[in-house]
Amino acid sequence: MKRVFGVKKDKEPPPSIQDASDRINKRGDTVDEKLKKLDAELSRYKEQIKKTRPGPAQEALKARAMRVLKQKRMYEGQRDMLYNQTFNLDQVSFAAEGVKDAQQTMSALKSANKELKGMMKTVKIQDIDNLQDEMMDLMDVSNEIQETLGRSYNVPDDIDEDELMGELDALEADMGSEADGVPSYLQPDKEEPDLDAELSLPSAPTGNAAAAARSNAQGEDELGLPAVPRASVRS
Questions:
Q1: Model-wide pTM > 0.85
Q2: Which of 41, 143, 173, 176 is buried most deeply by CB count within 10 Å?
Q3: pLDDT tens track for 42-99
Q4: pLDDT digits (tens, 9 = 90+) for 89-147
């Protein structure tokens, strides 16, 4: 049967937008190369026409240049058409990508919505309010415990705060007066007195003064009179 009727061929999948865009871009590149060749040929014909004198030869060159110029116009039209097709394909591709992004976003939102609903079933607002109230009560009890433990056993209850403030002001006044005048125990020690200056002792005599003293001692007696020479004792 297969030999008679043949085998059914599988249909080829339709080309994607990217495939069509790539194919059109390749055609555009081919057209651009042809346009470059035609531009070079036109430039050569222009140079030849300038160098050729008017006549049949120049007319033939002009006819060739006109043919090349027509081909150039045709290829430029094809290039513009290909550019427009590429632009349309890009717009369609952008729209398709936008739709795919929207689909993914919707799928993500649906999944998140389902998970959120399941989580909200386990959480109740009333339970949260009760928990907050319990926490506030516990904090109040904790503060009362801290205040109770922080009381001092030696401080009497009948302390007058005005009296304490008066004592504090007096203490500050005393500290200010000491700051103006330096206390005696902080003043520097006085210099030690010079014992020689206080005693005013005379200085030791020099050699000439000692000799004069000896001569005076030999020439005068106790009353200040000339001393009488004594006779030497002979044995």
A1: no
A2: 41
A3: 888 888 888 878 888 888 888 888 888 888 899 889 889 988 988 888 898 889 889 9
A4: 889 888 988 999 999 999 999 999 999 988 888 888 888 899 999 999 999 999 999 88
Q: Which candidate, 66, 75, 68, 2, places its Cα nearest to that of 32? A: 75
Q: What would the two tokens of residue 42 be?
A: 């036109």
- State the DSSP code for 213: H
- For residue 96, what are its two tokens? 């398709």
- The dihedral through the CA atoms of 73, 78, 83, 87 has a sign that is positive
With H, G, I as helix, E, B as strand and everything else as coil, classify residue 8. Answer: coil
Q: Looking at the DSSP assignment, which residues form a beta bridge with residue 226? A: 220
Q: Which residue has the tokens 């976003």?
A: 105
Amino acid letter, 29: D
Give, as one character, the DSSP assignment of residue 235. -
Report residue 95 CA to chain centroid gap.
42
3-class secondary structure, 189: coil
Query: How far, in Å, CA of 120 to CA of 142, rounded?
Result: 32
